[in-house]
Amino acid sequence: MPKILLIEDDISFCKLLEKFLVKKAYEVTIAFSAAEARLAIKKESFDLILTDLRLPDSDGIGLMTEFKTAYPEIPVILMTGYSDVNTAVKAIKNGAADYISKPFNPDEVLLVITNALKVSETEEVTVKEKKSVKKTANSNTENEFVKGISIASKKLLDHIHLVSPTDMSVLIIGESGTGKEIIAKSIHQQSLRKNNNFIAVDCGAIPKELAASEFFGHLKGSFTGAISDKMGYFEAANGGTLFLDEIGNLSYENQIQLLRALQERKIKPVGSNKEINVDIRIITATNEDLREAVKNGDFREDLYHRINEFSIQSPSLKDRDEDLMVFADYFLEKANQQLNKDIIGFSPEVVTIFQNYNWPGNLRELQNCVKRATLLTQGDFIKSDVLPVEFFQVQKQQTNSGNFSLSENEKEAIIHALSKAQNNKSEAAKLLKITRKTLYNKLKQYNID
After folding, report:
1. Record's superkingdom (predicted)?
2. From the centroid of its chain, how far is CA 211?
3. Which of 88, 99, 297, 317 sits 20 to 30 Å CA-CA off 183?
């Protein structure tokens, strides 16, 4: 199976092309920048390099020259959004195996790659073989922590790596659906307790009358309905990690019981006189402002400080725009496996709809949306007709608000956005609600420096 290194900073286009090439029997490693590409080529060997002409940290021709010098046997194909004959000639003169202008059709890119590799299309693997390979590679996707590329995601990852090896109590703060339990599991899996239990508890689902029994266990006959001995969450998590989700929902009385157990590291099952020593790490999560709850007298201040030795912010989906299609592609791959489907990716129209939607339900809503769309899709690509109706009821408020609409006075809008962003192109692209790649195209089109 030929191995291709795909270098492209337009995430949605890159993921779409990756899916297509995988389906056509190529093994693909993706890099969103020249720096990532240099690391990838040091770790493994490739049969072909497919790189965009314009990258955020390098010029494609310069990067191609660098790779051809170090790895002269690997053919390099350049992709560009600009149909410039001079650029094509320069690329070929500098050693490019071929040159392809975007947008290109699937048959065209296959032909160019096949010619560069000098291989026959008959060597393609079947869809079933490809799926079995992907299932093996992703056998543990259910609890996988997906690494985003946004600033918020990188900060989150840094904090997880920093706190995981310690035994500090961690408070994860974030909106519902942002993946707080996945973050907690990732901390546990990178800690010294990883070989012991990870016990997750939804505090909002525990009646306050039964909280002591649920947390600390009980003996048979200790109260009506206690027909047998029961081990509590604390004892079950002994030696490992106890994750208490939505801890702000605990009653004041239950907070006192929890605080005592955390301070003394001892528990007493309901109906027992015997104390049990427990060695656990506590990770908690909330979508509330616990500091405000402390001020209002709804949450104990001493418990707040006990569980908040280190806090981590779980970013919402709207705070990590660059990660949207990374997660969408991950959820599509997961849905393909669960539903025995083989959808390649998302149509450009769906990508645009996704990027303009607010995602109030965050990652949970995105996952549900992608899974439903995967089930309904009959072709190779998810199209807008399988999306829920709410996507079309939402008027694109972000586009209509402010003075950055590209619908008219396009050049002025771009200049205004660049000025507002202090010439930071990434920030300007966010203000304009377009990709960085599209902004580069517009800058060239209007000769804006």
Report:
1. Bacteria
2. 34
3. 297
CATH number for the domain whose boundaries are 318-400 = 1.10.8.60
3-118 topology per CATH = Rossmann fold (3.40.50)
pLDDT tier at 15 (50, 70, 90 boundaries)?
confident
The size of the chain, in residues, is 449
- Alpha-carbon gap, residue 262 to 273, rounded angstroms: 19
Token digits of residue 77: 């194909």
| Domain 151-313 top-level CATH class | alpha beta
| Overall average pLDDT of the 389-411 stretch | 56
Strands (E), 292-439: 310-313, 345-346, 381-382
Q: What is the pLDDT of residue 428?
A: 79
**pLDDT digits 0-9 by tens, 253-292:** 999 999 999 999 999 999 988 999 999 999 999 999 999 9
pLDDT at 104 over 80: no
